[in-house]
Specification:
The chain is elongated and about 80 Å long. The protein has a 6-stranded parallel sheet, sandwiched between helices. Strands 7-6-8-9-10-12 form a 6-stranded mixed sheet, sandwiched between helices. It has helices at residues 6-13, 17-24, 32-45, 51-57, 74-89, 103-110, 130-134, 161-174, 193-207, 225-237, 250-262, 296-313, 337-340; strands at 63-68, 93-98, 120-123, 142-145, 155-159, 180-183, 217-218, 244-247, 272-276, 290-294, 326-329, 331-334. The chain is an alpha/beta fold and 347 residues long.
């Protein structure tokens, strides 16, 4: 059976093709009766708008690329789902690409993978430098997620990781914990998320009048559960005696919970644990995981909004581009059993 066309809808509704188009595009000057008749005809015939054709008539593909380091880390999977949902509401198709934090893959994303298949890119970079962004040859609309390598080079949205880590550490300090190990921390200057969260941890410790100990910052090779478990086991074997863990993502925290259990340490009685990202597994772990919850939906919504704005202005010949837009998404600390012993906040 042939796919119904706009003229078939017009014939069924007894109106012109132009009127059907006006209803589809939600033009205000169409009467409610006509709008209802056309929508009924659309439903009866099973007519679907040809989005590809619509985008091509506008000189676009209707496709955007989402580029993230990993897809098997729950935070990035949840973020991808949210971005896809917001893009679909704006009649966009999202192609998802994984870089494994490889600079060449991230550079390829900056150039639209050397093709014209995408109208824009939402990119979460880990390996790019400020020079990479400054030397970007293409004009493909771009939005950066997470910690930016250098402000003012592209539209950007992220939570305030320094503030979030400071608040999480202050929560542990407020519970009387004084020997806090930062699992996944990086005690060095730099633009990365781990560096920002370590800085927030340090500011909280020093703000409480305690001495900052670089030896309490425990780096990891990867931000995954086995590395969180290994970090705790290594710290204990090295003689560290801590009463709290600030884990720089939930995957590390979930691995840490397992290692603490294997070493006979109770959570939170002996060691309190905080993570980052509020992934689903932390809401069902034993004990449930206290965590910093970024507003993932807000990050996704703003990222799509910024990209749409850039795409809309990409064809404005002669108009100078607007300066990069920096947005800060909200976050909150969700207190659960791994620090308080009770469930205080449940989604």
């Amino acid at each position: 059976m042939a796919r119904p066309r706009i003229k078939d809808v017009a014939r069924r509704a007894g109106v012109s093709e132009k009127t059907v188009s006006n209803v589809i595009n939600d033009y205000a000057h169409v009467s409610e009766r006509t709008r209802r008749v056309v929508r009924e005809a659309i439903e009866e015939l099973g007519y679907r708008v040809n989005l590809a054709g619509r985008h091509l008539r506008r000189g676009r593909t209707g496709i955007v690329a989402l580029v993230v380091p990993e897809l098997d880390i729950p935070y990035f999977a949840e973020l991808a789902n949210a971005i896809i949902a917001h893009a679909e509401r704006n009649e966009l198709t999202v192609l998802v690409h994984r870089t494994r934090a490889d600079r060449e893959h991230e550079l390829a994303a900056l150039e639209g993978f050397r093709s014209d298949f995408a109208d824009g890119v939402i990119l979460s970079p880990l390996a790019l430098t400020g020079d990479d962004l400054r030397e970007r040859r293409g004009t493909l609309p771009l939005v950066l997620l997470g910690e930016t390598v250098e402000p003012g080079l592209a539209d950007h949205v992220a939570i305030d990781n320094v503030l979030a880590a400071r608040e999480a550490t202050q929560h542990l300090l407020g519970l009387g914990r004084r020997r806090i190990l930062a699992v996944g921390g990086r005690d060095r200057p730099g633009p990365g998320t781990a560096e920002a969260r370590t800085l927030g941890y340090r500011r909280a410790v020093e703000g409480a009048g305690l001495a900052y100990d670089p030896a309490a910052v425990w780096p990891v090779a990867e931000f995954r559960m086995p590395h969180g478990a290994a970090a705790v086991a290594e710290a204990l074997a090295a003689g560290h005696r801590f009463d709290a863990l600030l884990c720089l993502n939930d995957q590390l925290a979930l691995g840490a919970l397992r290692a603490l259990h294997e070493h006979g340490l109770r959570v939170p009685e002996d060691v309190a644990v905080v993570g980052f990202d509020d992934v689903e597994a932390g809401r069902y772990s034993v004990p449930t995981l206290t965590t910093v919850a970024p507003d993932t939906d807000a990050v996704a919504s703003v990222a799509v909004e910024l990209l749409l704005n850039r795409i809309a202005k990409a064809g404005d010949d002669g108009e100078p581009p607007a300066p990069p837009d920096e947005r800060v998404a909200p976050h909150r600390l969700v207190e659960r059993e791994s620090t308080t012993g009770v469930e205080r906040s449940v989604r």
